[in-house]
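Suppose you are handed a protein chain with no further information: no name, no annotation, nothing but its sequence. What can you learn? This example shows the usual starting point.
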Amino acid sequence: MSRKEVILTEQGLKELQDEVNHLSTIKREEVAERIRAAREFGDITENSEYDDAKNEQALLEHRISLLQEKLRRARVIKESEIETDRVCVGSTVTLRDKGSGEVRIYTLVGSAEADPTKRRVSNESPVGQAIMGKRVGDEVTVPVPVGAIDYEILDIGKMS
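A reasonable first move is to predict its three-dimensional structure. Written in structure tokens, the prediction is:
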């Protein structure tokens, strides 16, 4: 496994801890119950229900192990460490596309918390790398598959 540091916001840490707790308690018990029920069907050598439940158990244990490893390697960015004069992990950044004028708001997070559907971009993504350390008024160029997009940083705040 990679020993790379996992950068998390306080919210991201809580979400990971909650997921580990849910998987380790509720989900583990649900899978154990599926295995118990499948055993009641008889011979487990030709029991697809049992095989499916055991496979689910293996995947669950693997997921729990991965999450626990992330937690062990976590460096938590506290809200008090989030700057508003310069973009850092935990910043919510308002960008204006210089070509189209479209305004976009992104929250910069570590890769473990990235979720493009919620406009949470990784500090390792092209957008994240381009804006990291920049200030309001700075212009950045973000490489995209069809060329590049130029943005102006309009505002920097703390993630909500």
